[in-house]
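Margin note from the TA: students keep mixing up input and output lines. Inputs are the sequences; the output is the structure of the whole complex. Example:
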Amino acid sequence: MNDIIKENDNNITEEKVVPQKKPDPRSKLAKPERMLVLNSSPHLHTTKSVHKIMWSVIIALIPAMAMSFYYFGVRAGLMILTCVVATLSTELVMNFMKGEKITISDGSAIITGILLALTLPPTFRLSSAVLGAVVAISLGKHIFGGLGYNIFNPALLGRAFLQASFPVAMTTWSNPITLKYSAIDAVSTATPLGAFKFEKILTDYSDLFFGNIGGSLGETSAIAILIGGIFLLILKNADWRIPLSFIGSVFLLGSIFWLFNPNQYPDPIFHLLSGGLLFGAFFMATDMVTSPITPKGGWIFGAGAGILVIIIRLFGGLPEGVMFSILLMNGVTPLINRYTRPRIFGESRK
Amino acid sequence: MNLLLLFISAAIVNNFVLTYFLGICPFVGVSKRVSSAVSMGLAVMFVMTITAAVTWLIYHLLLVPYHIEILEYVSFILVIASLVQLVEMFIKKVSKPLYDTLGIYLPLITTNCAILGLALFSVLRDYSFVESLVFGIGAGAGFTLALVIMAGIREELELSNIPKPFRGAGITMIVAGSLALAFMGFAGLISM
Amino acid sequence: MAKTPTPLSKEFLKGLWNENPILRMLLGLCPTLAVTNSAINGLSMGLATTFALLCSSILISLLRKIIPSQVRIAGYIVIIATFVTVADKFLAAYLPEISKALGPYVPLIVVNCIILGRQEAFSSKNGVGRSIIDALGMGSGFILVLLVLGSIRELFGSATIFNLQILGDWFNPWMIMILPPGAFLTLGLLIGLGNWLNERKVKI
Amino acid sequence: MNKTTKMVIVLTVITGLSGAILSSWDSVTKPKIEYHKLQALKVAISDVLPSYDYYEEKDIDGKTIYIGKLNDSTQPTGIAFKVDGSGFQGNLSIMVGVDPSFTSITGIKVLEQIETPGLGTKIVEDPSNKTDPFWFPEQFVGVIFSPQINVVKNSIPQNSNEIQAISGATISSKAVVRILNEDISIMKELYQSVN
C-alpha cells in the first residue's frame, strides 16, 4: 500500500502530464464527482455498496440461470457450479500469493464465474471451463491489481482465452433438451447466427425470444436476460446508456443493411434476439470497472461495440462478435475516458 | 488483391504489432503516454509509406535486373537508415513544430523492425508498386492504432496496484496478449 | 577506463541472468515472440542470432580503431546485415525446413537491438577476446530464454517438446499458446517471474 | 588524411567487402536454394497430377502451367497450375491438377497458408491427426466442377460436385473452394484459347 502511494506521488511530481484519474468504481457510486483516488483498495467507506451491487447483479442473473437449467438440464447447473468454485479458489490463491486481504466475499469472483459459465456451450468440458475461470481471475483481474483496476472484463477474457484455445469445442453446440427429448450430448446443432451465416437459415422468433435454440448456456433466452437486465437498470446498478446505445446501434445498422439487401443480411430483430447481444449488452458491457466513467463515454462505448458487432457478424469470419466487440471497447475505454472527461477549470488541454 | 482488403488486412486483421510482433520495442518503449504514442505512430507511418515505395523501386529496378538479390538485406537497411536521416533533415527544415513533435522518435525508427519487416514482406508477397504503397500505409495505421490503445491503457494502469514484478514490461505484454485476443475477432474480415 | 578488468567468467555470465537481453534489458522482443511457437524454432533462431552477433562482434572489435565514430552506425549495420544474409542463405540452402518455419524473421535479425546494442556498448570499446566472451554470453542468454519460451508454448500448445510427446492423450492442447496472444501472455508471465526471482536476489 | 575522406574510404571498403563476401556466398548457396525450390515444385506437381513420365512447363499470358505427359504419347495426362486468393487470415496458394479436358480435379495441394492452427490448417493436415480421420484435400480428387464446386456442411456429399466442409473451419473450406471455382475457369479459358 505504501508503494502505491509513493508511485502515485512520483507520477504527479515527475511528469508534466498528470495521468488521467479513473476513480475506483466503488467510489464513483458514492460520489460521482470525486476524481482523485490515491489510496489502494479496499476503500472501506464504500465496501458496503460494492457488496450490494455485486449481489444485485447475481440476483439479476437468476432468470438467465433458471432458463439455462430448464433448457440444458443438470449440465447447466454443473457448469455454473464448476466455474464459480474455480473462480473463488483462484481468487483465494491470488489473495494468498499477493499477501492481501481475502476478497472472495465481495461477490465479484462469483459473478465472474457465473458470467463465464453462462457464455460457454452446454457440452463444454468442465476441466477446460476451470482453465477459463483461472485465466479470468488471474490474468483478467489480479495481475492488474485486483477488483477495480482491470482493463478487460475478466469473464470475457477467460472466454476469449477458451475460444482461442479450444476453437472446435467452443463452437460445438447442442440442442436444448426441450427440443429433442434426448441427452444433450447426442446431437450437435448450429446457433441461429451460425445457421444464418453459413446456410442462410432463419430461426423462428418465438424460439429466439424464449430461448429454445442452440447456443451458450445463458444467452439463448432473450426474455430471461431482459428481466434481469431491467432489474439492474431499475436499481441503477448499470449505466442504462450502454445497453441502450449498444442495442440501438446494432438495430440501426442491422436495419440499414437489411433494407439494402434482405437476402444477404438478416433483419434487425434477428440481430437483437440471437447470439449473445442482449446478454453482452446488459451484463458484460455494463461492468463498471471496464466501461467509461462519463455519460458521454457510455454512449460512445455502446455505439462502438454495436458497430463492431455488426462488422464482425456481417463481414467477419465468425458468426458472432459480441465478445470481441466488448473486449475491444474495453481496450479503448481509457482513451474514451480521456477524451470525454469534463475538464476542470484552468486545466490545460493536454 | 483488392486494395481496400489489403489495407484492412495490414492495419487490423494481420496487425503488425499484435500478430506479426513487428515493432515491439517501440511498442513497449514509447507507449507510456498517449501524446507521444500518437507522434511516434505518425512518424512510423510516414517513414513506412516512403520506405515501401523506395525499397520496392530498389528491389525491382536495381537488385532484380542485375541479379544481386543477395544484397537485399544490406541495401534495404542502408536505404532505411539514410531515409530516416533524410526525413529528419527535411522535417527540420520544413516545419519546426512537426520536428519538435516527431524529432526525437525519428532516429529510433531505423531499428524498428516493423520498417524492415514491411520491406521484406512486400518482396516476399510479390506486391506491385501500388499494393506495396497501400500495404505500407495500412501497416503504419495498424501500428499507430495498437500503440495509441496501449498508451491509453498504460496511462490508466499507472494508478493500479499491479504486483511489483509485473510493472512495466510484464503487464504491457499481458495487455498486448489480451488485445491480440480481442483482435482475433477480426479474423476472416478479408475473406468474405 | 582504468578500472580493474572484470573477470572473463563474469563477462560471460552477465548475459545469462543479470543483463539477460530479453528478460532484463527487453531487447530483441520481436523474434522472441514470433518464432517461439516450438522449441526447435526458438533454438534455431537463437543460434542464427548468436552467429550474427558473434561474427559482428569479432569484426567490429577488430576494426574499432579504424571506423570513424561519425559513420560507425552505418558501418555496423552493413557488417551485421552481411552476416545475417550469410546465416539466412545458409539456412535456406542446408536446412530448408527451418528456414521456411522462421520465414522473414531471420533477415529481421538485422534490426535486432541486441546485436547493434552490443556493438555500441561493448565491441566498439573492448578487445577481440573480451568481445567474443560477451557475444557468447549474450547469445547464450538469448538462446536460453527462446528455448524456455518455445518449450513452454510447445508443451501447452501441442503437448510436445522438440516434437516428442510429453503430455498424454488426456491433455487437450491449448491452441492459444501457439497463436500470437499466447506468445504475449507467456512472455509477460516469464518477465514477471524473472523480476520476482531477481528481487529475491536469486543468482546463478 | 582528412576526416571526410577517411569516412568515405572506410565505408566504401566495408561495403565492398560485404559485397565480395556475399557474392561468393551466393554462388555457394544459390544452386542449393534453387534445387530445393525445384524439388518442392516437382513434389507438388506429382501430388496433384495422375501418372505421367515428364511434365512440360508452358507460359500462357504470364501464368505458368505444367502439362503432364507420358513418354509414348503426345496427349497430356493432366494439367497442373498454381492458384491463389485470400483465406481466413491471409493469402492461400494452392497447386491444383485437372484432367486435360478441364472437367474434373485430379488433386490439390495447399502450398502456402496462414489459417488458424488446429482449425483452418486442417485444409493441409494429413489424416495421421487422430482426432479427425477426414482429410480435406483427398475429397477433391475426382470432383467435377460443373457448374461449380459446392460446399456442404455436416453431411456426406451426395453429388460429384460437392465437398464437405471441415467442421469448425467453414470459412477456410469455403475459401479453398471459392479460389478453385474462380481460378480454374479462368485457366480453362486461357488454356483453351491456345489449344
